[in-house]
Model the fold of this input.
Amino acid sequence: MNKGELVDKIAESANVTKKQADAILTAATDSIMEAVSKGEKVTLVGFGSFEPRERKAREGRNPKTGEAMEIPATTVPAFSAGKQFKEMVAPD
Done:
């Protein structure tokens, strides 16, 4: 499912226009990205959590030359699925 299909589904489910659904989805994703970029955790109960995670510096290899190189520490966005989401994907 791409963003256009998701907008269509939201518009149908929430009984709003596609333009309104697109604005809502854009506002939600922008708000999540902004919060996580500031170091905050965003939790949507049942769906999951978005948070920044620290990745340690490590040694890697240049795929062309095979030469060892240092990969610097960085912060990356992470998503952890909630219990309800996990159960929907893989029911017991």
Q: What stands out?
A: The beta strands are 42-44, 48-55, 58-61, 68-71, 74-81.
